[in-house]
Amino acid sequence: MDVKTLCLGLLTQGAASGYDLKKRFETCFKSFYSAGYGSIYPALAYLADTDLVTCEEISQDGRPDRKVYRITDKGRDYFTEALASHQPAHKMRSEFLAMIFFAEFIPPDRLNKLIDERAEELQQILKELEAMSDTLAKHPDSGVEFVAGFGQTITRAALDYMQQYRHLLTKETSAQRQAS
Amino acid sequence: MDVKTLCLGLLTQGAASGYDLKKRFETCFKSFYSAGYGSIYPALAYLADTDLVTCEEISQDGRPDRKVYRITDKGRDYFTEALASHQPAHKMRSEFLAMIFFAEFIPPDRLNKLIDERAEELQQILKELEAMSDTLAKHPDSGVEFVAGFGQTITRAALDYMQQYRHLLTKETSAQRQAS
DNA sequence: CATAAATATCTCAAATTGATATATAACGGG
DNA sequence: CCCGTTATATATCAATTTGAGATATTTATG
Asked: Is A2 helix (H, G, I), strand (E, B) or coil?
């Protein structure tokens, strides 16, 4: 499931420009899949090349042309087939956890700041996921519902854990006591 | 926190070859940060170039030379400084959740298989994290402890959620009933 | 009235992935 | 004893992705 395929997937929800698609990534996939313009625009160019989407250029005065992409029947087939056959990978890169792993090299103040900042990020994500669940009352969709609930559960678990166990990190070690 | 910096970090735990380092990534950072040879070997070459590590080539009969890397004082300083100043990013790419998001395009059998397989992966990760916690009894380290506990908490939350709410996905929708 | 944010596309160097190539030893099953 | 698999060990490379920046205008906001 590369950015190409997911652009196709998001286009099943309706025609969109690259700019729009970026926003859909941010609202729908926030918390578990990110994509920047650097991958979205080349993806759309490729999809148009291979007739999985069509591109309608709408000229606007002043700004660059707005290019609206629409999924084709071939594209829909391709997407369904991708969902049916692709083996999903799970990749994560948490620099936060990587740094905390080396907590013994980090002064307590800095550790507290790192945790507080990460907690704030998670609170933000939680808020957005809750907003997503609210929207669903009007447009029910089991997949979206499951994913939004999943995100909320995980995020709450992360927040709880951090608050409950942060003291583990800032308790002075014998090494740190000697240094001070 | 790129692979370069984390190689340096792992080398604070003792000298290692690229091959060893890969295994350390897999045991220590499993579940939250992965790195392949394709990034580790270039990283080590760069670190050696900039005197953050030294490289000792140990010739072995038959196999290629084993190159053992050791962190230098300069490297240790660089790493501590990186931990002190770097803003940690959190990136995740869950193709699993991305696919589930589009559950309405996926037949129930396939959905069940996807969930079962993901659950198995999570069980496996959980087992490894628990093994990590056990090891800690002998070599206590607050950072490692926190991270291992964090992973366990999140993983259990994910597994629980999946089992509790998977029925949301495989309940037939009106669209699917019509198709059959 | 200035200035920040939103709209909109695109490029590019750098980092990373994932697969592959190379070569040997060790281990277990048939 | 042979065969396949796993472990040891390094390295390269195309494809993908990131993250930042270039460009240019309109629309809010203070």
From this structure: coil
Domain B3-85 belongs to what architecture? Orthogonal Bundle (1.10)
Residues 6+ apart with CB under 8 A from B88: A94, A95, A96, A98, A99, A114, A118, B1
Interval B82-131: pLDDT, tens = 999 999 999 999 999 999 999 999 999 999 999 999 999 999 999 999 98
In the numeric block, the tokens 């729009």 are attached to A20
User: How near does any CA of chain A get to the CA of B19, in Å?
Assistant: 20
pLDDT at A172: 62
CB contact under 8 A, A165 and B150: yes
Please classify residue B177 by burial: count the beta carbons closer than 10 Å to its beta carbon, then call 0-12 exposed, 13-18 middle and 19+ buried.
exposed
Q: Is B149 on the interface with A (CB under 8 A)?
A: yes
Q: Domain segments of chain A: what residues?
A: 3-85, 95-179
- Matching residue, tokens 């300083």: B77
What are the strands, taking DSSP E only, across chain A?
53-58, 66-71, 90-94
Closest nucleotide C1' to the C-alpha of B5: C15
Tell me whether residues A88 and B95 touch, CB distance under 8 A.
yes
Query: pLDDT of B129-145, one tens digit each?
Result: 998 888 888 788 899 99
Better-predicted residue by pLDDT, A159 or A171: A159
Lowest mean pLDDT among A52-56, A135-139, B78-82, B111-115: A135-139
Of residues B90, B105, B158, nearest to A80 (C-beta): B105
CA–CA distance, B13 with A73 (Å, rounded to integer): 55
Contact list, B100 vs chain A (CB under 8 Å): 143, 146-147, 150
User: How far apart (Å, rounded) are the C-alpha atoms in residues A123 and A153?
Assistant: 12
Name which of A143, A154, A168 is nearest B154 (Cβ-Cβ): A154
Tell me: pLDDT of B173 over 80.
Answer: no
Chain C nucleotides near the protein (CB, 7 A): 7-13, 15-20, 22-25
B176 has pLDDT over 70: no
Give chain A's end-to-end CA distance (angstroms, integer). Answer: 51
